[in-house]
Amino acid sequence: MPFTCSICGEESTRICVRCTKDACDNHLCEKCRRCSDCCECEVKLSDPPRMMVHAAAPEPVAAPLPDAAPGQEPAPEPPEAGEAPPA
């Protein structure tokens, strides 16, 4: 049997466990089952939930390789360990 919320007047089917007032889902704490008038939880029912949003870190960009000047050959790569230098 539906009742009327004693706080806002909406339809309610539950009561506060402390004061036994009729309370709708908007005014009944899910944690302690008390109405918003009796609730002593740290998070008040009227406060909207807060979400932490962190900005995404940009991906590192490799530095561009310097281009060889026109007419120049690129420098030879050093030989690997155990190889003889080219003649």
Textual characterization of the structure:
- This protein has 87 residues and is mostly loops.
- It has a domain at 1-35.
- The protein has no helices and four strands.
- The protein has strands at 3-4, 11-12, 14-15, 22-23.
- A two-stranded antiparallel sheet has the order 1-2. A two-stranded antiparallel ribbon has the order 3-4.
- The chain starts with a strand and ends in a 64-residue tail after the last strand.
- The mean pLDDT is 75.
Any low-confidence stretches, pLDDT <50, length ≥5? none
- Oligomer class: single chain
Q: Distance between termini?
A: 99 Å
Q: Which strands sit side by side, in order, in the main sheet? A: 1-2
Largest beta sheet, briefly? 2 strands, antiparallel
What's the gyration radius in Å? 35 Å
Q: What's the total helix number?
A: 0
What's the overall geometry? rod-shaped
Fraction in beta strands = 5-15%
The helicity comes to under 10%
What structural class do you assign from the helix and strand content? little secondary structure
What is the number of E strands? 4
Task: Briefly summarize what is shown.
The protein has no helices and 4 strands. It is largely without helices or strands.
Question: What is the topology?
Answer:
Elements: E1 3-4, E2 11-12, E3 14-15, E4 22-23
Antiparallel strand pairs: 1-2, 3-4
Features:
little secondary structure, 0% helix, 9% strand
